[in-house]
Design a protein that fits this description.
The chain is of the alpha+beta class. The chain has helices at 47-55, 82-98; strands at 17-24, 34-41, 64-66, 69-72. It is built from 2 helices and 4 strands; from the N terminus they run E-E-H-E-E-H. Helix 1 (47-55) crosses helix 2. The longest helix has 17 residues, at 82-98. The termini are far apart.
C-alpha cells in the first residue's frame, strides 16, 4: 500500500493526507512496543461510521482512529491487497459522504423545519 498513489483514490483522495504515526508491534507479548510508520488519514466526517463501513467491506479492512480521523496503516496490508484496500476505502468514503448531513458537507444550511 505504500506504493499506492493518492490519485488511485480518485475524488475520495481529495480529503486524504499522509501522516507520521506509530504502529503497535504486537498485543500480548509486546503491548508497549511501537514502530514509526506513515498512515493514510481518510477524509473527515464521522470516524466511527467510516470505520464500521471499512470493517464490513469485502474483504474487511481494519483501520484505526487517530486524532478523530480514520487512518490506514500500510504495515498491515499484505502484498497484493492494495487494490482491495483502495476499492474498500473509496466505497466507504463515498457511502459515508452520501450519508453526511448537507451542512457537514458544506452544501448549505440543509432542510429547514417549519411550524
Amino acid at each position: 500500500m505504500g506504493e499506492v498513489k493518492l490519485a488511485a483514490l480518485g475524488p475520495a483522495g481529495a480529503g486524504c493526507e499522509v501522516r507520521e504515526s506509530r504502529s503497535a508491534v504486537g498485543g500480548g507479548s509486546l503491548p508497549e512496543v511501537t514502530l514509526p510508520t506513515f498512515v493514510l488519514a481518510l477524509p473527515g466526517g464521522d470516524p466511527d461510521d467510516l470505520l464500521a463501513r471499512l470493517r464490513v467491506a469485502d474483504p474487511p479492512v481494519i483501520a484505526r482512529i487517530e486524532e478523530d480521523r480514520v487512518v490506514l496503516d500500510p504495515r498491515t496490508v499484505m502484498p497484493g491487497e492494495d487494490d482491495d484496500v483502495v476499492r474498500a476505502a473509496v466505497e466507504a468514503v463515498a457511502a459515508a459522504e452520501e450519508h453526511r448531513p448537507q451542512r457537514a458537507r458544506g452544501l448549505g444550511p440543509g432542510p429547514r423545519l417549519t411550524d
